[in-house]
Every structure is written in structure tokens, then in C-alpha cells.
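ping. complex inputs:
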Amino acid sequence: SQTIHQWPATLVQPVGSPLSLECTVEGTSNPNLYWYRQAAGRGLQLLFYSVGIGQISSEVPQNLSASRPQDRQFILSSKKLLLSDSGFYLCAWSDMGLTEAFFGQGTRLTVV
Amino acid sequence: KQEVTQIPAALSVPEGENLVLNCSFTDSAIYNLQWFRQDPGKGLTSLLLIQSSQREQTSGRLNASLDKSSGRSTLYIAASQPGDSATYLCAVSSGANSKLTFGKGITLSVRP
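pong. complex structure:
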């Protein structure tokens, strides 16, 4: 069966520090991968998605970037965090085509 | 631009009650609609996926319906239990690659 791992679960980082969140999927090949952010009082917002290695699409302009160095690995990064980057970050995957999306357990990021 | 609305934002019911959670979307040209459950501080658990060609899906005490032409979906929970207390999110996929647009969710509290 397929599983998705996301870490760390919580992170407190100072303003201006770098960020790296990692997500891996097991049990499937060539999945579509997604990064969403859930901010307080707002719905989940799609940040990035990827349909293959090295293929990244950004949905909103922001201080973050994403990379997909391997088929089942998706990384969310920032060179310098802003206070506004605080939120709950969720990684998700789906099979190619119009199918069900599955989410990881999320990372709570607090920028101080 | 697709917009998804879930009203009310919160709901409290006594145990055993049958209840309906509503979701509406502005663009009826969707590929599928998915209902999720989110417990506090956790990731999303997929409950039901309805393809655009389907009218409803059932899983245990849950039944989700879709009326694409009117831009509405409902999640019916039968014989609610305290363990059903969580936030329920509705999301639609309006294009390729399963990118989802989410509502803000309905926080359900089932009182013993």
C-alpha cells in the first residue's frame, strides 16, 4: 500500500533563516506531488505541484521554492524565512490522472 | 477562478443525530470532488471521492452527493458519534493534475 511521510512535524525558525521540508511517498511510481499551506482562518492553498522529476509548477508568487530530486521525493525550501511564512504545510500525492489525493501529516512551521 | 464555500463554519450536534454538511462551488466544470476529515493539528484524511460523472458515493455511515449543474455537494453523516468531531473539508479539482481548491471547512462537534 502507498504511504506518505512528511517531516519534521513541528519547526520553529527565526526570521531570515533557511528552510527545508521533506516529503517522500512509498508504494507508487511517478506520482503527482503537491505542497499546500494552511494558514489560520484560511483554507488550504496550493503552493507547488510536480508531475515528474525536476518539473515544478508554482501556483502563487512567494518566498518559497520546491524541488523534486527523485521520483518520490518533494522538498519545500526557502533561503530566508519571513514571518508570513508561518503556517501548516501539507504534502500530498495522487496518481497520474484525475484521481484521489492523499495527504501527509503536515509540518507546523512557526517563524519567530 | 473556482471558489469553494462551506457554511456554517462550525456546527454542534448531540450524539446520534443525522446531519448534512454543505459545500458549494462557483464553476461547475469540475473533474471530481473530494471530502476530507482533519483532526486538530493533523493532516487530511480522504473520506470520499466523487467523479464528475457520479451522483453519490457511500462509505459506512457517510454518503456524499454531487449536483454539478447547481455547484453543490453534501456530506451526510448518519447516527453521529463523538468520534466524528473534526473539521470536514470539501475540495474540487477543476483541471488536470488533480490540483484541488478547498473550502475553509466545517468544524463539527458531536456532544455525548
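Chain B has a mean pLDDT of 95.
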